[in-house]
Fold Membrane protein.
Amino acid sequence: MNKLIKLSILSILILGIGGCESDFLDEQPSEFLSIEQLEEAAEVNPEIAAGFIDGIYAYMVETFAAGSTSHTDFGHKGFDIYSDMLTSDMALTVSTYGWYRAAITEYQATEDFTFAENAYAWRFYYTIIRSANTVIEIQGGADNVPELEENKHILGQALALRAFAYYYLVQYFADDYDPNKPVLPLLENAAAAGLPKSPMSDIYTLMESDLNSSIELLDTYNRSNKAQINKHVAKGILAYVIASTRETSRMQEVVTLTNEVMNEGGATLMNQSEVLGGFNDVNTPGWLWGIDINQDLGIGLVSFWGQVDHFSYSYAWAGDFKTIDDDLFSQIPNDDIRKLQFKFSGHPQENSGSNAAIYPLQPFYKFYAPERAIGGAQQVTQSDYVYMREAEMLLLNAEANAKAGNIGAAQTSLSTLLSQRVSDASYVNTLTGQDLLDEIYLQTRIELWGEGKTYQALKRNQRNMLRAGSNHLSNIGLDIPHNDDKFSFEIPEREIQDNPNINTQN
C-alpha cells in the first residue's frame, strides 16, 4: 500500500467534507458530525467513508493497537503468534525477555480473565467491528445498495471486515462450535454497547450475510493494492466461516468458494523458490491479501518481524526464540523444500557465532528481512505482512472435499500442493478416509506454520493440542482437546465489570 493513513478518523472526515461540500459545513456547523450528516456527505464524496476504511486497514498493523504497552500488541499478526503458540506448533525455546511465556505458552491467560491478553484480543477485534459499523451506517446500512460504484465497494469492504473480526472473535472466545450457545455480544451498529451475549447461530448468520453481500458489492471492484479486500478475499473468509461449522452437508459450499478463489483470484501457488524467499514481499504472486509495510507506518521492534525474525532488530535475534516444534519438524521429509525454511546455512553472514547455531529451527528462510543482516535494521521497511494466500485455499479445498466424500478431488488438491514441495507426491493417491484427513491436517500445519492458521484448523478438525516437541520451555507432553478451556480466551475482566448484561455462566 502506498500509504496507510494514520490521521484520526475525525480529521479524515473533516478534511474529506471540507474538500467537496463547503456549504454543507456552513449549514451544519458542528465540531462533531452525526451518522446522518456523514451519510449525506458520503453520497456525493466517497472519500468520506474511504477514510474510515483506510483507517481500519492501518489499525490492523498499528503498534499497541489494543491500547497496551505490551510488545505482543501490534495488530492482527500479533494474534497469529498467540494462536500458533497456543497450538504448540510454534515453540518458545528461549525466553530472555518474557513475552508470551506465562500468559500464552503456559496457558495462564486462557484460564484467568484478569490477564491482559484476553482484553487485547477482545478490544482489537471489537474496534474493527465498531469502525466497520460506522462505515456501514454511513453507507445506509448493510442492506443498502449505494448508487455510486465507489460507495458499493466501500460498503463491501466494511461488511467483509466486520465478518472477518467476528470470525476471529468466535475462534478465540468460544470453546467449540455450538449454534445454540451464547458466545459474544452482537454489535450491529456504531452506538451499540452493553449488550448480552448472542447465540453463536446469530453471529454466524450475520457473518454469512455480510460476506455474501460483500461479494456482490465487490463484483466490479478492482483494488489498487493487496491491502484491500476484494471479492476473492471475501470468498476466502466465507469459506473459512462455513468450514468452521463442521457441517458435512455444507462442505461442498467450501469447495465451490475455494475453487472460485483459486480459479479467479489471480494468485498462484508459491513455487519452491518462493517458499524460501517469498514471505516478506506483498508482491509475491501467491499472496491473496497482505500489507505493504513501509517507512510511513513507523513499524519497528513491536511487530511480527520484531518477534519472529532473526534478521530484523528483534527478540528472535536477541533472546526470545520462536521455533518450529521439533516433533513437527521431524515429520517434514528430508526432500521437502519446507524443511529448509528452518535451517541456518548457506549465507556468508550465517556463521557459528550466531545464536542461531545454538538455538536452531527458527524460520530463517521463511520469515526474514530480505537484507538478511543478523539483528538488522530497527525500522521495518522491506518486510510485509501476509494475511491470506493461495496455498491455504488449496488446503482448505482438499479438507472440504475429503469431508464431503470427494476423495479423488481431495487427493488432487493435496497433490497439487505437494508436487511443489517434495520430489514424489504420488503417495497421496493411496490415502483415503481418516488417513487422508490426517495428511491434509499435517500438511496444513507444515505449510502454514507461523501464519496463524493452525489454530483454526485444529478447532475445525477437532484435534487435540499435543505439545510433542522437546524444545518447549514448559508443559512438554501436554495433551488437551480442542474445546478445553485452556485453548480459548476468557471474556476480559473489564468487559464483565462494565457490561451488566453479560453473563459468563451461560
Q: What stands out?
A: The longest helix spans residues 149-173. The CA atoms of residues 10 and 27 lie 19 Å apart. The chain is about 45% helix and 5% strand. The chain has one domain: 9-273+388-498.
